[in-house]
Amino acid sequence: MLCPACEVEMLILEYSNIEIDFCQQCGGIWLDEGELELLLQPGSPNSKLVADLIAGLKNLDKPGMARKCPVCRKKMKPVELSIEPVVEIDKCPYNHGIWFDKGELQQIMSSTGASGKLSEFLNSVFKKK
Ligand SMILES: [Zn+2]
Ligand SMILES: [Zn+2]
After folding, report:
1. How far, in whole angstroms, is CA 55 from its chain's centroid?
2. How far is the CA of 76 from the centre of ligand 2 (A)?
3. Nearest ligand to the CA atom of 7
4. Residues with Cβ within 5 Å of ion ligand 2?
5. Which sequence spans correspond to the domains of the chain?
6. For residues 75 and 25, what is the distance between their CA atoms, to the nearest angstrom?
7. 26's torsion region: left (phi>0), alpha (psi -120 to 50) or beta?
8. N or C: lower Cβ tally within 10 Å for the chain?
9. What pLDDT digit, counting tens, does each position of 54-74 carry?
10. What band does 129 get if pLDDT is binned at 50, 70 and 90?
């Protein structure tokens, strides 16, 4: 898959049998629909939190950064996560997945307190250059 921001081929990383697409050039992360929930293990205290976060996604009534979904190539819509501080992410209008710019996923993790293994993993990913 191509990075929605820089259109280079993304690296596929594996974490707990979940494929995460990672762009080495810009540090962004693409998660297919449902992978964010999977990342936080069903049944763990974090999975409800993430479900709430996703349910609380607000469509922003403004043009996005013209990033295209790597699956269907349609323009993604900016959405806001209702956490403090507010994080704006890009989401495919057909629900193929969610795009996180560099650091946004970690920001979400730390804002929601959903730290632990996943954030360790992400930090190690971002340190790889
Ligand atoms: Zn990129
Ligand atoms: Zn799509």
Report:
1. 15
2. 8
3. 1
4. 69, 71-72, 92, 94, 96
5. 11-127
6. 21
7. alpha
8. C
9. 666 666 666 556 789 999 999
10. very low
